[in-house]
Amino acid sequence: MSVATEQTASEFQEHPSAPLLRMERIPHVWCPSCGIGTVVKCYATALERSGVDLDKVSVVSGIGCSGRVAGYMKLDAFHATHGRAIPFATGLKLGRPELLVTVISGDGDLVGIGGNHFIHAARRNIDMLVILINNFIYGMTGGQNAPTTPISAKSSTMPFGNFEEPFNLPHLAASSGAPYVARWTCLHIRRLTWAIEEAIQRKGFRFIEVVAPCPTLYARLNKLGTGLSEMRFYHDNAEIQHGCDTRDLDIGFHEKIVCGKFVDEERPTFLERKDEHYAKILGDKYIPMGPEGGMIHE
Amino acid sequence: MPQFCKACGRCIEACPKGCITMGTEIEPATGFTPVILNLDECTACGLCFSACPEPYGLQPTINEFETELFDPATHFGPRTTSAPTPVEIPDQQVPLPELEPLVLKGNHASAIGALLAGCRHFFGYPITPSTEGAELMAKLLPQLDGVFVQAVSEVATINMMYGCGGAGQRSMSFTSSPGFSLMVEGLSYMIGAEVPGVVVNVMRGGPGLGNIAPEQSDIKMLCRGLGHGNTHAPVLAPSTPQEMLDLTMLAFDLTMKYRNPVVIAADGFLGQMTGRVQLPKTLVEPGIPAWAVWGDEMHRGNLISSIYLNEQDLEAHNIHINEKYERMIDSEQRADLFFCDDAEWLVVACNTPARMAKGAVEEMRKAGVKAGLFRPITLWPFPIDLLVGLLPNAKGILVVEAGTGPLEDELRIALSYADVHSPPPITNIRRFGGILPQQQEIVDSLSSLVEVKS
Q1: Which residue of A has its CA nearest to B128?
Q2: Most buried of A25, A65, B43, B344 (most Cβ within 10 A)?
């Protein structure tokens, strides 16, 4: 069976995620034991498992460490402006409604400078999958305070410890209207992959927060050891509580991290609402936009 | 008063005697149908005045004179207030003990300059290669009776500066090119509302995200495109860590003097470069400007705003701003002249490329060529008055830039306005994308110019 032998050989030679990665750009820029690579792998695995048409998947990133994800995915990939990955993805989704639009970016990008866009996309229930990699800090610029930095944690712009209340991201997403909200850590590789796979099947503004270690800055500034000790910390301190009230999901400094799926419900998306509304008001005069995104000259 | 009535009908509801009815005639000044008063039944209870949401919609006494819409002062006279006229509390210069020179990074030198100039309010957002300035401020300001806030974006940053500057306080931010782009809307408002503030733009490669390497990429935006409308701000271009400190102090001086933001155009190298920095002999203890929204009785009449809905008012405001720009052009032109007195070959360069240009000029002088470096310190206003005097000797001008040519554009615009219509031939060396022109490139270019001429 020559075919089988060939397959075995190619599997041996090639990383399972290789078909989804721009291998010519590998190795990636992320630090040793950074969590972003894990998320990329989980995302790639979930995409393959879900069986979606990969020609109809696009990935959008903002700026920062996690902003580099788009550059490594062998998909229709976009590197957007700082904080504006979600408006960019909104435009893309409305331009090509048949695409599965994924936003993978960091906490500083999506809920710091892009916080306004985040809550409004959730409010409108724009059809996109948002994977937010939360490392509690601005990594790329050198460890500045983020809107997720826990109280008393040190950062380079809070050298005496942070005193600002951080965001509880699942609660922010859920209260803004997101119909799918989950949180996992970089230790929960399988559960994260399942969550992404499940979220791909849902519609609307799907939000997955992934708690990730930043060994170079967050862990070093706060004397938390290496990336591996962060993993050990997740192992000992992550609690899985599906359906937990999102109000109880604050993350304190070096305190337990509640993981799980918190919201999974159906709510009409922006485009569904739009179609329904205009069909009601305009009747026959309403021309709904096709999956290609409007008038295309054939 | 029909000119001010918007026909909302609240007084009709409020009147217990039914004296007021909705009008039917359209008031030409407003397009509304003002209410009609029938005062036969009126008991002067005043309920209609209380209900009226318009300041001059209803008046206790019937007005007897013609009124002009828009300006209540014409028929009510100037607003009376018992508050005293604001008095400026001037800045104090406090002597500093003489210290040994420090060895500082450019960004740190600039932050220390700001502290010495009396700045105690810092708002910033992380962006490479400028962030060290913010980080030092985060460390020092809590210990110096100051405030450090990491804003959520550059848009938030500049508006925090707008508010803080409106209170008459010295505020600043560090940023780099993409961040500066986000700030220009706020800068336009600050210029319109005449609010001071200092932004240090540690320029990096563009357009878009570009990279984090040094480029003089924003000179065009800083000199010609500082937001919408009629906007200009003094643009200071340091070329050493020492100047990062000195020019930051000067920037605070200028920003308070002209009530206009000031921008420091540094480049990525200058932000990161470490060098010898001598502290000044005095530091500034800031006073309170008379125009500040300071929050006491004396200052309560002050208004910080950039809205002038009336066309005549906005034109007059722009004339006032233009007069300010003229004063800046007349008295703030600054340049560093190196071997320029008898120079036949003028090199024009600023920021880090000026350092290579300086080396090249020294090399050319050793070879017997009369080369000189004209280094603008103010990019806007361009120091044309200092350059014009050097032109009769000059056989050629070489503009050296780590950019695609905006410095040369500024030079040519300034020459044109100075009525120099046939300047010596202008050539250039332009490197960009984060690559700086090298001394040898400049020497080679100058040598070939000299050769062609002889």
Answers
A1: A141
A2: A65
